[in-house]
Amino acid sequence: MRKHVMTTAAIAALALLAVSGCSSRTAAGAGTSSAAGFANSSTIGVALPSKTSQNWVLAGGLFTDGLKAAGFKGDVQYAGASTTVKDQQDQISTMVTEGAKVIIIGAADGGQLGTQVKAAHDAGAIVIAYDRLILNTADVDNYVAYDNFKVGQLQGRALLAGLKAKKAAGPYNIELFSGSSDDANSKVFFDGAMSVLKPKIADGTLVVGSGQSDIKQTATAAWKAENAQSRMDALLTSTYGSKSLDGVLSPNDTLARAIITSVKSAGKPIPVVTGQDSEPESITSIMAGEQYSTIDKDTRLLVTEAITMVKDLQAGKKAPVNDATSYNNGVKIVPAFLLAPVIVTKANAAAAYANDPVLSLLTK
C-alpha cells in the first residue's frame, strides 16, 4: 500500500476551507452561552490527544489556522504518546492559568479530566468536548462530534453488505475488534455496530469464530496498530488454521490496515474489513480492493463547527445544539451538536470525496 503524506500546504488549504465552509446548524436546542461574551482576541485552548491517527494531526493544523483566521489566539497542544493523560491534564491546567476563555478538548482519557475541567469552570472558561465525550463531570458545557452510534451502525451494515457481496449466503466467520477502553467513543462505536450484528449472530448468519464478542475481549489498547496486529496474529493461529475468515469488524482505518497486514502475512485471503476516518492510506487500500470500507467524518467540518461555537460564545450567543438527550456522561446529559457520518466503499468513494482536494486525488 502506498503511504500518502499530508503536506503542510495541503493542511493549510484544508484549514482555509474549514474556516470559510459552512456546516449544518439546524439546532434543536441551545447550549451554553458566555453571557456578555468575551474579546475576539482572547485565547482559545485546544487540547488534543497524541497523534495516534491522521485525523488528529489534521485537526491540530485546522484549529491553529482556523482560530487565527477568526481573530483568536489559539493555543493548540498535543499530549505525548508515553504519558498521554498526564500531559493533557497539565496542558489544560496551563490553559486555565493563562486565561483561556474556551477550552476545546479531544480527550486522551475522558474519565480522568474532572479536576482540570472543574478548574476551567471555576476560572470562568467554557469547556467543549470535541469528538470524545468527557465523562463523570458536570463541568463540560457542550459536545461536538459526529454521530458515533450511527458510525457503528454503518460499520455493521457495511460488514454485512461486504460479506453478502462475496458470498450470497452465510454462515460467515467473523472477528470483532473495538477501540481503546480509555476512549469513551469505543463503546459507542461497538454498541452501534453490535445493534446491527447481534441479531445475525443470534440467528447463525454470523459466527464469531474465536467466541470473543465482549468489548473487553475485543479492545485494542491505545488504538495502536501493533496491538491489533498482534491480536489478529493470535486469532489466526488459534482459530483459523483450516477455517476461512470471512470478515472483521474494525473500528478505524489504522487498525483495519494492521488487521489486513496480519492476514496477508499469514498467507490467507483478505476478509471484508471495515474502518473509519478516511485515512489516505486506507482509501488507497479500498480502491485497490483490500480494505472494504471506511467512514467519512470530515475533520474540516467538525473543526469548523467547533470554531463556529467559539464565535457564537464570543458574541454572547448560545452554542448550537441538535441533540439534547443522547449523551449522558454519567453526571449530566451534555448538550451536543452532531454531524452525520458517511459510509464509503470503492463504489462511492469518488462521489464521497469529490469536494476534498486531497482525498479526491486518491479515487482516480
| Overall outline | elongated
Distance between the termini: 16 Å
Annotation field: number of helices: 12
Task: Examine the secondary-structure arrangement and name the CATH architecture of the largest domain.
Answer: 3-Layer(aba) Sandwich
The CATH class assignment of the largest domain is Alpha Beta
Strand content: 15-25%
How many domains make up the 3D coordinates?
2
Rg, rounded, reads 21 Å
Rounded average pLDDT: 91
The CATH homologous superfamily of the largest domain: Response regulator
Walk me through the structure.
The protein has helices spanning 8-20, 54-69, 84-97, 114-122, 148-166, 184-202, 215-218, 225-239, 253-265, 280-287, 299-314, 349-352; strands at 29-33, 43-48, 73-78, 102-105, 126-130, 142-146, 172-176, 206-208, 247-249, 272-273, 293-296, 318-321, 336-339, 342-345. The chain has 364 residues and is α/β, with parallel strands linked by helices. The chain folds into two domains: 8-147 and 298-340, Response regulator (Rossmann fold, 3-Layer(aba) Sandwich), CATH 3.40.50.2300; 148-296, 3-Layer(aba) Sandwich (Rossmann fold). The strands form four sheets. Strands 3-2-4-5-6-13 form a six-stranded parallel β-sheet, sandwiched between helices. Helix 9 (253-265) links the parallel strand 9 (247-249) and strand 10. The longest helix has 19 residues, at 148-166.
